[in-house]
Amino acid sequence: MFGKKDEPIITNSDKIDTILGKNAKFTGTIKASGLMRIEGQFDGDMECDGDLIVGEGAKVTANVKARNAIVAGAYEGNICLDGKLELKNTGKLTGDVKAAGLLVEDGAFFNGKCEMKGETQKSEPIPIKKNKSAETSNPT
């Protein structure tokens, strides 16, 4: 939807540095570097220097700061990314998002606010020019 289709979000998904497995449940704070993949349940806060993948069966309730993220499972909480968020058609995201790019597949669920950061944030808003004839004309 937003962003270029030919530009991949995760550059090297074969090299997962940290994984929370399908049957794992974790509550607390995680600080990770590199690529993190969650397949189980996570509740807490996360700081990831690299990218985050929330698998299709995962249930995450957290506030996350990462580089890029792919959400294919259930995610509840706020997410702040330096790069892009990709919400897969199986993904359900409830919370606020701050990211430089957003890709939402057909069928995905998103309930929250999205703030795009980057180059567009730096520019001044363009004032709307009013048409003087429309202001002075009398329609009756």
- Count of alpha/pi helices: 2
**Tally of extended strands?**
15
- Radius of gyration equals 19 Å
Q: How far is the N terminus from the C terminus? A: 44 Å
SSE string? EEEEEEEEEEEEEEEHH
Strand composition percent: 35-45%
Give the overall average pLDDT.
82
Instruction: Specify the biggest β-sheet.
Output: 9 strands, parallel
Q: What ranges have pLDDT less than 50 throughout 5 or more consecutive residues?
A: 1-11, 120-126
Give the count of structural domains: 1
Report helical residue fraction: under 10%
Rough outline: globular
- The chain-level structural class is mainly beta
InterPro entries: BacA/B
Protein name: Protein CcmA, bactofilin family
Family: Belongs to the bactofilin family.
Pfam families: Bactofilin
Descriptive report:
With about 140 residues, this protein is mostly beta strands. The protein has one domain (about 20-120). It has 2 helices and 15 strands. It has helices at about 120, 130-135; strands at about 20, 25-30, 35-40, 40-50, 50-55, 60-65, 70, 75, 80, 85, 90-95, 95-100, 100-105, 110, 115. The strands form 2 sheets. Strands 2, 4, 6, 8, 9, 11, 12, 14 and 15 form a 9-stranded parallel beta sheet that branches. Strands 1-3-5-7-10-13 form a 6-stranded parallel beta sheet, with no helix packed on it. The longest helix is centred in the C-terminal third of the chain and has 5 residues, at about 130-135. The termini are far apart. Mean pLDDT is about 80; it is low at about 1-10 and about 120-125. This is Protein CcmA, bactofilin family. Belongs to the bactofilin family.
